[in-house]
Design a protein that fits this description.
The chain is α/β, with parallel strands linked by helices. It is about 35% helix and about 20% strand. A 7-stranded parallel β-sheet has the order 3-2-1-6-4-7-5, with helices on both faces. Strand 1, helix 1 and strand 2 form a beta-alpha-beta unit. Helix 1 packs parallel to helix 2.
Length: about 160
């Protein structure tokens, strides 16, 4: 099983793009936490999410949690390995990271500006990062999810 925890994403466009990619890699459930836009929202946030999700939001299971820590605690009880995608001293290169074949995983993605909080990182079993070779220090969260999700799904 492959689940996703989105912790305080700001952009509905990013959330929608993540829904679309999550559908492509077979994510079973997305936990939308904090201020992360939700498909059920009225107004611009809901429309922007639907615009980039292209219908994936209609058939992909999702659940709202006020706090990402609650989603992580629930997943840990179900024996998921919690993996954060973040730049950190303890992080492992996503291209070198390996999982067991039957390992249930939950990937945590954080806020576009602040990333994943230290409190949430402490709850994670592993931290992975995508190596950067240019001048910029990071990728857009939806792009980073695309790279990491395929690595995790198909490089076990």
């Amino acid at each position: 099983m492959f689940c996703l925890v989105l912790d305080n994403l700001r952009s509905a466009l990013n959330a929608g793009a993540i829904f679309r990619t999550a559908d492509a890699v077979g994510v079973e459930r997305i936990y939308l936490c904090g201020i992360t836009p939700r498909p059920s929202q009225s107004g611009r946030a809901g429309k922007d999410l639907a615009k980039t999700a292209l219908g994936a939001e209609k058939h992909l299971a999702w659940e709202y949690k006020k706090r990402a820590g609650d989603a992580i605690n629930q997943l840990k009880k179900q024996r998921f390995k919690i993996i954060a995608l973040e730049q950190d001293k303890k992080a492992v290169d996503v291209f070198k990271f390996r999982l067991g074949k039957k390992q249930k995983i939950a990937l945590v993605l954080g806020n576009e500006v602040r990333g994943i909080s230290k409190n949430i990182l402490k709850k994670c079993d592993k931290i992975i990062y995508i190596p950067m070779f240019g001048k910029k220090e990071s990728l857009n969260v939806a792009v980073a999810f695309g790279i990491a999700s395929y690595c995790l799904k198909f490089r076990k």
